[in-house]
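Abortive infection bacteriophage resistance protein (Lachnobacterium bovis DSM 14045), 336 aa
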Amino acid sequence: MAADKEFLTYNQQMKKLREKKKIDCGNTKDKTTLVRMGYFNLVNGYKEPFICGKDTNGNHIYIANTSLEGLYALKKFDDGLRMLLLKYITQIEEEVRTLTGYKFDQCNDNGKTPWYDAKAYSEKSKLQNKMNAISSAYSELNRSRSEYVRFYMNNHETIPTWIMIKVVNFSTFIDVLSNSKTDVTHALCKLYDLKDDAGYYNVKLLIGSLHWLRKVRNSCAHNERVYCIKQIPDRNAKNSGRILEGYFRSLRSTYLKDKDKKIMDLLVYFKYYLTDKDFKDMMGELQKMLLKLQADVSTNAFDNVRGKMGIKNLNDLETLKNLPKTDISYHEFENY
């Protein structure tokens, strides 16, 4: 059994970093950083890209000239990335929920077939899957403390679709959407130009991309490290693998060889869901953040970070940013 970690003062922590890990630190600024961030959050949380091997005793060896300031630069980058991604994911989530609620009712005799009726969903979906989605939605509405939910519970016989869609968890919303009638999912695919190589509406891309947005959003919301987030394909889990769509095929061929979903996959999905202006604004901000990090850490450490994000080369971000995309015709959505 490993020995318990002994308590170390901040000065002792810095001495340990200098002598045992060969990480440069020691001035007042470094101590302030350590006090504010905490040893575990900063060193244990962000050391991996700075590691280049292990010694004969199994201890990590760090890239030459690694400093506490460099680790802090990576943490600041990750904090900024988290906020940037969360901003656009929540924007997309709110929009897709709103559009789904509208189209769901429109495709169900203008709302006359309610969302809690299995007939409101696709005939191709298993009854068990439809009932699971309805049951989860009911349960989450019942637990909701939102004022407008309680109002409808107390003063009306039913909860409207738009309230259900707005209130349920992101995962439950995706279940509702994936079991919805084909006209609902196809309308969203048409709006966002989500198509496969043959030009057919790509519902797999729609649902799979939303699941990845959900996973990254949850990591952002729980203040977890996000630059290195990935999802390894699970043979038993639907929509867990990468979806090699058109934009990836327009980048260098090495992207097609990766197996895990990473931040680069999220950026590609953003290309579909954001307007061209919003996407270019987001990418421009990300590129500035990456260039700042590149200037603040060693080349090897930066390349490790870039690799964990799934970015083969920074130039690929500029290529992705400028690839042509179909305008999102919101004004025509009700006719889809």
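The chain is about 60% helix and 0% strand. The two ends are 63 Å apart (CA to CA). ok done for today
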